[in-house]
Specification:
Helix content: 40-55%
Bound molecules: FE2/S2 (inorganic) cluster
Structural class: alpha+beta
Strand order of the largest sheet: 2-3-1-4-5
Order of helices and strands: HHHHHEHHEEEEH
Number of helices: 8
Length: about 180
């Protein structure tokens, strides 16, 4: 029998001297976001969204900074980050492709699309290409079942997808015309 240490007890949180939540961001949050919510915690989602957008990830250090900005527990920030598919603790690619895998899309051939993207980009769901251009995700219902199969390319929803239309979207993203929204 051997004792194994829980990784969580020994994991070092990588930190950097420069804060992720810049003064400019905090000023904007204070001015624009906080007044919109009854509690400071209400501003957590839009703040996380800003950080994810800016850094393509929500690093642990940023969660600690956000917690102290909002006066809430870092564990609550972590809970929120792990709950939502759109937040990532590792950097994602410039183009995040999220293919819906729920029932309506499944019936309409999501697997063919997913397999096509997997093979074309050489990555499995939740992986990022080595050049940092693409991340592939399989998501739950995106609320557009009547136009299945659907996928998100960054924040933009694309409906009634075919292999040809997915290929076109990937081509555009590769050329940089798809861009990050
Ligand atoms: S099942 Fe895909 S959008 Fe609802």
């Amino acid at each position: 029998m051997s004792w194994t240490t829980k990784p969580s007890a020994t994991t070092k949180i990588p930190t950097r001297a420069e804060p992720y939540c810049t003064q400019a961001m905090k000023d904007r949050w204070t001015k624009v976001l906080l007044p919109r919510y009854a509690t400071k915690q209400g501003a957590l989602l839009p703040i996380l969204h800003d950080i994810q957008h800016e850094y393509r990830q929500v690093p642990y250090q940023a969660m600690v900074e956000i917690a102290s900005f909002l006066g809430i527990n870092p564990a609550d920030v972590l809970d929120t980050v792990s709950f939502y598919e759109e937040f990532h603790t590792e950097p994602v690619g410039k183009c995040v492709i999220g293919i819906c895998q729920s029932i309506a899309c499944e019936v309409c051939g999501h697997q063919k699309l997913l397999d096509h993207v997997r093979v074309r980009l050489g990555i499995e769901p939740h992986e990022t290409t080595d050049d940092g251009k693409f991340t592939l995700l399989a998501l739950e219902c995106l609320g557009s079942c009547d136009t299945a199969p659907v996928a998100l390319f960054n924040e933009k929803l694309h409906e009634n997808l075919t292999i040809a239309s997915v290929d076109k979207l990937i081509d555009e993203a590769q050329k940089g015309t798809g861009g990050h929204h």
